[in-house]
Design goal:
98 residues; 434 Repressor (Amino-terminal Domain); mainly alpha
């Protein structure tokens, strides 16, 4: 006898929440998108890592942490400086859950 899938028809976010990992997965995904977007802007503007680090008044190591999609410990200040150095403004919003 085949058992029914208890998650069929439910949202993936509901599954992650039940597993207790929704917040971590969401933060990691958000960081990956931000890192990717900054890298894309650098490429489009022909900005090297050294150039961006200099514009941000930071080290290459700090920039490497920012661009590391798995490093979620980067501060909003660092992300904001990177955005500004690329002619952009970082925007953060809070939204209701569920």
């Amino acid at each position: 006898m085949k058992r029914k899938n208890p998650y069929r028809g439910s949202r993936f976010e509901d599954f992650l929440d039940e597993e207790g990992i929704l917040e971590d997965v969401t933060m990691t995904a958000t960081k990956r998108v931000l890192s990717w977007r900054i890298a894309q802007l650098m490429k489009r503007q022909n900005v090297t890592k050294s150039m961006l680090a200099k514009r941000m008044r930071t080290s290459r190591a700090a920039l490497d942490r920012l661009l590391d999609e798995n490093n979620t410990s980067v501060t909003l200040q660092t992300m904001g400086r990177a955005a500004a150095a690329l002619g952009k403004q970082l925007s953060v919003t809070l939204k209701d859950t569920a």
